[in-house]
Amino acid sequence: MTSTCDVLVLGGGGAGLRAAIAAVEADPDVRVAIISKVYPMRSHTVSAEGGAAGVIAADDSLDEHAYDTVSGSDWLCDQEAVEAFVREAPEELLRLEHWGCPWSREPDGRVAVRAFGGMKKMRTWFAADKTGFHLLHTLFQTSLRYERIVRYDEWFVTRLLVDDGRVRGVVAIELMSGRIETITAKTVVICAGGCGRVFPFTTNANIKTGDGMALAFRAGAPLKDMEFVQYHPTGLPFTGILITEAARAEGGLLLNKDGYRYLQDYDLGKPDSRPVLRSMELGPRDRLSQAFVKEAEKGRTVDSPYGPIVHLDLRHLGEDVINAKLPFVRELCLSYEHIDPVRELIPVRPVVHYMMGGIHTDIVGATPVAGLYSAGEAACVSINGANRLGSNSLPECLVFGARAGRAAAEYAAEAPDHDDAAAGHATAAQARDEIRRLEHELQRRDEGREPISTIRAEMQQTLEEGAGIYRSADSLAKAADKLHELQERYARARIDDHSRTFNTEFVALLELSCMLDVAESIVHCALRREESRGAHQRTDFPARDDQRFLANSLIHRNADGSMRVEYLPVTVTRWPPGERVYGR
Ligand SMILES: Cc1cc2nc3c(=O)[nH]c(=O)nc-3n(C[C@H](O)[C@H](O)[C@H](O)COP(=O)(O)OP(=O)(O)OC[C@H]3O[C@@H](n4cnc5c(N)ncnc54)[C@H](O)[C@@H]3O)c2cc1C
């Protein structure tokens, strides 16, 4: 069966919902569909805790937000994109307010803002520590006002259809029935989120398997800056559950095994530094995660069954502040660690949190493939460069989701209709191929083959060991070899469930294939970048090298499946490369 729309948004998270709303608002005739492998409110955006950055305070300015973002990115971002971002972020956040988002407020009624890592002014809007829930809910209920937005909830996209260099639609599985369908579209906007699950310890939900990145990559769109993977310094050790940066913004301290605030030893300021916003616990995530590794090397971390940990201390904040500003942090600690942060220290370690890299787009979300757009964590526009600042991602989803939605609607209005016979024929042939492939995959039988779980676990371990917080040519080359082996083993792996109704094992099989492709792109890009910048730290090339690498990496997939990396110089508008200074 085939269905048709003009703009097909792949993903019902913050970026996808914002893109869909922008598309219908831009054009009264456009037919929009949102397709999502989970019900939209279960997208990862829902779990964002800390907040969304946008200049609103009287003592703040757009230039300061831009500068913090540029220096935080270690100068690898596109400064034109950053300028658009900081300008439009407050507008988007206010729009959300008008759509009903319950932002936390000061006693006098003004929108409250909190400090966040690497932001030198208070500019992070929040809804207690459940910002993502409220933001997503606001977008979701706004999207319901538009009958022209059709939804495919719990449908899994397996392939982009591209003919003659143009996107034609997707093939997807309806998870409830196992039915495989073609949905043709004039444009596809990929808002399919990140890929943290390629690593073993991550704050990311199970669904974050890089599907959108892999689908675009396979369809001929390059991925950008895949070597830049963000570790968040404070995840719970076993589950990887995030303890939001807001905990440190409210005054939480990081202590080593001696109860010492070790960050003062890593050029991140001193306990008495002024202003406090620039120092220590509120340094950027890359620096804090790197300091943790150094501290472990000095033997000053605490051993735990899940590797070394340090402690996050909130006790001095008191029960009232914790309940008012960080209720979710308390709930998570009680449920998952059986500790109460009002009285006890929280064990934490760096965990993979966010992907700076993604599908290469321009400033309106267009990729090099005609009709293919992308926004949100799946995309790399890039405002995050080598290191994203906390609370920039949610507004990025809004600003660039809206831009991509509008641009896609415009493109669809000009694109020829679907009844172009030759194109329709080629698209139908591709769709038939994909349906045959999926039917074949579903039948992978036992015959002594290995299950997919071992391949997935080995892939995650390989990435942590080979492409973790610190990397080297040696560790990355080993990881590349191992991933090659895992791709071969994947081709022979089995699944045990061959049924059609909600076959989660089948979905896991398809997701693993996406993760392996994404993992290979991370490792290849990391191997090529012979410098250290932001989240990419090479022990064999410890310095930043602007001469060779003030450029975004673009990884392409060749027709034979091999990969090729090119570099695209970054756009510098007003802030030439400088030193990243914190704590001073
Ligand atoms: C625990 C946590 C806390 C965070 N806190 C903050 C914060 O406080 N501030 C901040 O700025 N950022 C935060 N972030 C980052 C931020 O939340 C994410 O980067 C952002 O929400 C991503 O939104 P998205 O719309 O791009 O993707 P997602 O919200 O991940 O949505 C992806 C969508 O794509 C769909 N999809 C994926 N693959 C397929 C497929 N094959 N077929 C069909 N559908 C598919 C999914 O169903 C889903 O609807 C946090 C992240 C985490 C993990």
TrEMBL record:
Domain Fumarate reductase/succinate dehydrogenase flavoprotein-like C-terminal: 456-582
Pfam family, one: Succ_DH_flav_C
Binding site for FAD: 11-16, 36-51, 211, 377, 388, 393-394
Keyword annotations from UniProtKB, A to Z: Cell membrane, Electron transport, FAD, Flavoprotein, Membrane, Nucleotide-binding, Oxidoreductase, Transport
Record domain FAD-dependent oxidoreductase 2 FAD-binding: where: 6-394
Gene Ontology MF annotations: electron transfer activity; flavin adenine dinucleotide binding; steroid dehydrogenase activity, acting on the CH-CH group of donors; succinate dehydrogenase (quinone) activity
Binding site for substrate: 232, 244, 353
Compartments where located: Cell membrane
Membrane topology, from the record: Peripheral membrane protein
Gene Ontology BP annotations: anaerobic respiration; electron transport chain
Record-listed E.C. numbers: 1.3.5.1
Names of the cofactor(s): FAD
Catalytic reactions on record: a menaquinone + succinate = a menaquinol + fumarate; a quinone + succinate = fumarate + a quinol
Gene Ontology terms: cellular component: plasma membrane
Catalytic residues of the enzyme: 285
Assembly: Part of an enzyme complex containing four subunits: a flavoprotein (FrdA), an iron-sulfur protein (FrdB), and two hydrophobic anchor proteins (FrdC and FrdD).
Family per similarity comment: Belongs to the FAD-dependent oxidoreductase 2 family. FRD/SDH subfamily.
NCBIfam families referenced in this protein's UniProt entry, alphabetically: fum_red_Fp, PRK09231.1, sdhA_frdA_Gneg
PANTHER family, per the entry: FUMARATE REDUCTASE FLAVOPROTEIN SUBUNIT, SUCCINATE DEHYDROGENASE 2 FLAVOPROTEIN SUBUNIT
Protein name: Fumarate reductase flavoprotein subunit
Species annotation: Actinomadura rudentiformis
